[in-house]
Amino acid sequence: MSPQARRRSLGTVCLTLGGLVLACLVVGSGLWAKDHTVWFKRLRGGNAWALTYQGDAVGGPGRATAVRYRFNPDSFLPAHRVERLGRTPLPWSSHVLVNTGEPARVEVEPAGDTVATCRILLDGVRVVAEGRSPAPGRPAVCEVTTSSTPEKWPH
């Protein structure tokens, strides 16, 4: 084999190996990024769902003797809080964060002979839970476990 043909053959081998190494790096980094997406999201701002809790009285304005709801004050920590409100005018709503994979819950206890309703909305739009008092004066309870996969709420 002539020296010129050897150089051409060696160049082809080096170019092919370099292309294979580059392709492996691209595929490997893509797989690494897919597996570490949750870590990047936590670094950016935690993993929590933006929910809206709502309470209302059937047939018009009313009052609740108590409203209780569960939320996460810090999307980086697993600890949750339960807020307890006393007498509250209805309709009522509150925007909260609930960590991924955690239960979201609101309970509206109506005053007197009132029937209460409750709803939990995802991003203030999509209803993911709703409930109604089983009888006048009995609490309306809404509860749902949030999706454990960030940005993917089941349909």
Describe what you observe in this structure.
By secondary structure, the chain is α+β, with helices and mostly antiparallel strands. The chain has helices at residues 3-35, 37-45, and strands at 48-57, 62-71, 81-85, 88-90, 92-99, 103-110, 116-122, 126-132, 140-145. Strands 2, 3, 4, 6 and 9 form a five-stranded antiparallel beta sheet that branches. A four-stranded antiparallel beta sheet has the order 5-1-7-8, with no helix packed on it. Strand 7 (116-122) and strand 8 form a beta hairpin. The protein is rod-shaped and about 100 Å long.
Strand and helix map with partners:
Elements: H1 3-35, H2 37-45, E1 48-57, E2 62-71, E3 81-85, E4 88-90, E5 92-99, E6 103-110, E7 116-122, E8 126-132, E9 140-145
Antiparallel strand pairs: 1-5, 1-7, 2-3, 2-4, 2-6, 6-9, 7-8
Mean pLDDT: 85
Per DSSP E runs of 2 or more residues, the count of β-strands stands at 9
Number of helices: 2
- Principal-axes geometry comes out as rod-shaped
The structure class reads alpha+beta
Low-confidence stretches: none
Measured between the Cα atoms of the first and last residue, the distance is 66 Å
The major pleated sheet works out as:
5 strands, antiparallel
